């Protein structure tokens, strides 16, 4: 009632409500921590030798620097090379990447795998069917005659082609994001018979030299 009575005494121009600008809700808020704390953990990550004995300490350091690292990536958009230089244990301890992804997705890291074949692949096929680009249509026709791992690989390639560029517009090399750069990180699936034929040819050449 007091607020209503005060409002009655205001002039018309003073009654206008100005909506304050709010922070976007799609980005998680990261707590501001003491900048001297991550420095000690970063030193541990870089200097401690990766071994079973040191695994627990390194995992703790990765966990303690998570908020700092996410803020750095979101604000500075470093390349993959720069991230690995700052956090080299991600390279020789691949399990840390799984832990990182789990924290980023709030423990839902397996949802993509669960829904991949039953939900995501059918939707990808439907979306790709409207594409007029020849290489996407070629991959889609190829997927129609594939199963299991070969189908998954082809659909992953289609997904990479359909995804928009990153917000920073940068690839792992630091240049403008490109599909070929992303595709290069996928492992090509080659039937076993082809590998054996190649091996036989290589050995025959080796014996003749």
Account of the 3D structure:
60% of the residues lie in helices and 0% in strands. It has 209 residues and is mainly α. It has 2 domains: 36-104, no CATH class; 111-195, no CATH class. The protein starts with a helix and ends with a helix.
Cα shape: flat
The quaternary state of the protein chains shown equals single chain
Unreliable stretches covering 5 or more consecutive residues: 18-36, 169-176
Helicity range of the residues?
Answer: 55-70%
Q: What Rg is obtained from the alpha carbons, in whole angstroms?
A: 26 Å
Distance between the termini: 100 Å
Summing up helix and strand content along with how strands pair, one would put the structural category as: mainly alpha
Helices and strands, in N-to-C order? HHHHHHHHHHHH
How many individual helices? 12
Largest sheet: none
The count of domains is 2
The proportion of strand residues reads under 5%
Q: How many strands? A: 0
Mean pLDDT: 75
């Amino acid at each position: 009632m007091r607020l209503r009575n005060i409002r009655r005494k205001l002039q018309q121009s003073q009654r206008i409500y100005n909506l304050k600008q709010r922070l976007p809700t799609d980005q998680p808020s990261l707590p501001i921590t003491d900048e001297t704390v991550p420095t000690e953990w970063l030193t541990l990550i870089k200097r401690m030798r990766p071994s079973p004995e040191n695994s627990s300490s390194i995992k703790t350091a990765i966990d303690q620097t998570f908020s700092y690292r996410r803020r750095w990536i979101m604000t500075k958009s470093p390349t993959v090379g720069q991230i690995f230089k700052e956090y080299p244990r991600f390279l020789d301890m691949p399990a840390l990447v799984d832990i990182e992804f789990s924290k980023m997705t709030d423990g839902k890291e397996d949802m993509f795998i669960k829904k991949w074949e039953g939900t995501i692949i059918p939707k990808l096929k439907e979306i790709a069917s409207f594409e007029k680009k020849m290489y996407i249509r070629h991959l889609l026709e190829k997927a129609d005659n594939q199963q299991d791992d070969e189908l998954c690989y082809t659909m992953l390639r289609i997904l990479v082609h359909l995804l928009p560029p990153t917000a920073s517009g940068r690839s792992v090399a630091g240049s403008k994001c490109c599909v070929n750069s992303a595709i290069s990180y996928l492992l090509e699936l080659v039937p076993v018979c082809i590998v054996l034929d190649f091996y036989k040819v290589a050995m025959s050449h080796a014996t003749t030299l």
